[in-house]
Amino acid sequence: MNIGFISLGCSKNRVDTEIMMAILKRAGYKIVNRIEKAELVIINTCGFINDAKEEAIDTIIEIGHLKEAGIVNYIIATGCLAQRYGKELLEEMPELDAVVGISSFMNIDRIVEMVVKGERLAETPPPPMFFVEKGERILTTPPGSAYLKITEGCNNRCSYCAIPLIRGNLRSKSLDDIAKEASFLVEKEKIKELVLVGQDTAAYGMDLYGKSMLPDVLQILSEIDCLEWIRIMYLHPNHISDEIIEKVALLEKVVPYLDIPIQHFADDVLKRMNRKHNGEHLKKVITRLREAKYNLVLRTTVMVGFPGETEEDFKKLYNFIEETEFDWLGCFAFNPEEGTAAYNMSGQIDDETKQERLSELMKLQKKITRRKNIGRLNKVENILISSQIDKNLYLGRGYFQAPEVDGVTLVRSEKPLSKGEFTKVLLKGVREYDIIGVVVAEEDQYIS
Ligand code: SF4
């Protein structure tokens, strides 16, 4: 039977999709890229905020139309929306044949068998206590790059966040399993870049080893031959220790790029968000990191319109963003999520004000990102080629660009380039959030 996948949401969810693909392939099913070729479709949903829930439900309805038309026979929803709403989702959506939570997707082969036998089921027990999401994967990322999920769940309990309700408490993959998976990906899949993901990667190991062991992960990965880039995403600023800063500074393979979601800067707001630190702490951490790692590129995520956020609070955040000049920034408008502490908080802000603050901040950030990108021009950089757009135009990323969330580098080349390989590129121009460059001549490829 042909099985097709739609993977929604974040990189952690994408890793789960890749594991499910490998499980079903091993069980003898054929994984197809084109949904209209699939007899069974698995929609790996996201469900932590309203927009994501709507996207998941729209996707289920859309595939439901293919089922009505007899093109698709079965539909299974997995992932966060499935975990969060379980039986209720199955009752609400007749299109679905099964709803499978994040705690059960490792049994996807058994569930597919039951569905094909005509069963309709919801399997969403509470999240597991230990890291179970492991095993072979069918990579869905472009050649040369792969996500490495080192933690699942989260203990931080930020007051606006539904993720711990869905994905449970912090669970770290063992150091041994991380080393094994990373070596396999580098040797067998020719991976050059590993992108470390989790809800809070800086908290890695606090459950299993009683303290953050991210420095040990970085050391182990750095010793893998042929691995060239280690990129760290989702660092909670409260858990960025001296040891982590030291390793980031010393280990060459750790690219000078860090993703540190700060959410806000005003102390009152940070307190009500339960971020467990104040604005001054953010300033200190960022200053120390920039002193420790030359050319450090910083990405962050902020939230506007949190209950009780005054014009003055917003101004504090705005000024901090203007002063700090993050290279990349994502901004969300607060959305009350059932089951979270902030859901019933007083001082809820109207949507118009939220949108005004969001667009004001993004307008500021657009100028900053452009200035940062212009500052990279007329330099030669190592670009990881991920795809070919036309005869002489390729798409890639430099160390200063994370996959899927930042801009890309468009590479003009008269000679063919290999996907998943690095090539030296002279950066020449900026277009929106992207950079345009030309391949450096063969004899100059040695330029460092
Ligand atoms: S760190 Fe906070 S925002 Fe991030 S997953 Fe954990 S609880 Fe949610």
Describe this structure in words.
The radius of gyration is 22 Å and the shape is globular. The chain is 34% helix and 23% strand. It has 3 domains: 2-123, 3-Layer(aba) Sandwich (Rossmann fold), CATH 3.40.50.12160; 145-374, tm_1862 like domain (pyruvate-formate lyase- activating enzyme, Alpha-Beta Horseshoe), CATH 3.80.30.20; 380-445, Nucleic acid-binding proteins (OB fold (Dihydrolipoamide Acetyltransferase, E2P), Beta Barrel). The strands form 4 sheets. Strands 2-1-3-4-5-6 form a 6-stranded parallel sheet, sandwiched between helices. Strands 7-10-11-12-13-14 form a 6-stranded parallel sheet, sandwiched between helices. A 5-stranded mixed beta barrel has the order 15-16-17-19-18. It has 448 residues and is an alpha/beta fold. The chain binds iron/sulfur cluster.
Structural class: alpha/beta
Q: Compute the separation of the termini in Å.
A: 50 Å
Small molecules bound in the structure, each named once: iron/sulfur cluster
What is the helix tally?
Answer: 12
Average pLDDT rating: 96
Main sheet strand line-up = 2-1-3-4-5-6
**Biggest beta-sheet profile:** 6 strands, parallel
If classified by CATH, what would the architecture of the largest domain be? Answer: Alpha-Beta Horseshoe
CATH class term of the largest domain: Alpha Beta
